[in-house]
Amino acid sequence: MKRYEKRLGLVLAFFSILLFMTASQGMTEDKKLTVLTWNIPYFEEGFNQWVTAFNEIHPDITIERLDKKGSEWSTFYQTQVVAGTAPDIIDVQGGLWLEYASKGGLLDITDYLKRDTDYTERIYPEILGSWVFEGKNYGVPLYISKTLLFYNKLMFKEAGLSGPPASFDELLSFAQKMAQGEKTGFMTLNFDWLYWPLFAANGIELLTPDLKKAAFNTPEAVALVEKLAEATASGAINKISWTGRWVEPNGAFASGTVGMLHAHAPAFLWFKSKADWVNEETVGATHLPGGWSTPNSHALLISKSVKYPDAAWDFVKIATSGAGAEALGKGTNNLTGDKIVNEQLFSYFEKELPAVVPVLKTQLEYLDKLCGNWPAAKDAEIKEAFYPELQNALLGQKSAQDALADAEKKVNRVLQKR
After folding, report:
1. Is the pLDDT of residue 9 over 80?
2. Contact 284, 154 (CB under 8 A)
3. 241 contacts 190 by C-beta, under 8 angstroms
4. I need a surface site. Which of 112, 134, 153, 257 has the fewest CB within 10 A?
5. How far apart (Å, rounded) are the C-alpha atoms in residues 380 and 193?
6. Range of 168's domain?
């Protein structure tokens, strides 16, 4: 009996060791970080370069990549957050991150940035500030994008205009001169506050400095909206400015019937791909009068639920600086947040894609004139409260005074909600 018990004990011990080894192996195999990118499925080679560099320092962690179109990204991420399976690292555009940061859903990376000065000193501080909420930094730039003014040099020549407008009033005047028949003079993108430089150029603020109250309902704002509405009614401003999103306004400019387009840099390669007439001789790129622009850069952020935050930060650094950033810039034809890498990218673009160089140069200028990027936790709700009323005025469905008064009430209700 004792011999049997001894053998049984040895067998049980053996199986315990085997189970422990199997469990340990399973734990090793399950170490994984998921990365959600924003509509860059073609960036496979560059992404694999990031993974290879990451696995040199974290060979035990697998990287799983997910990619979603812009129209699908928000719904997918929100669904995963609710399910408790939020992707560990996310590529975010515009202000979508603010709601998640305000609810504690994103990792505060401030201490990482303070610790890793070799990395942080490479990044443009003005751009880095785009992802600060309540004194904490939540993201770093993946690639840089902000609004600028494209202008059709052929239409300018036909209208007797020698160069881009130097003031806001001149912009409207130029737009009116080019508005003939099917042609219109000016168009803007309207999502993600991309049109706000028109307001900033006229000294109008959306919110008070403490972000607690609407500040836009002023006589100056009423006058501006009236000007924009009149220009829209006359055809100087294309109505698609206030109703389209991406394809419609960029497609209109590609048709050659719009004199100026206020959009962010990625629009250039989009409409260039649709129009044979577009090149550096026919399309100019400059700043909106006053140098104002709205950033719409992409950033990498880390979900608070991440199991391996230090490793996730290592991946973020690899993707957004040095060789990883260079791969991203070449693979997507964009500038990055890394100052050193961008010098190398300009040399590359001058040889491979010279038409894009004037566009990209504007992205690094007037970084002190960024607007439309308020760190408001309820950014999405504020947009939903404000823009429909503004749209009513711009399309002549309400007076500017009534529309702004109604928008003020709605925005303040949003800001007062807990």
Report:
1. no
2. no
3. yes
4. 134
5. 10
6. 147-294+378-416
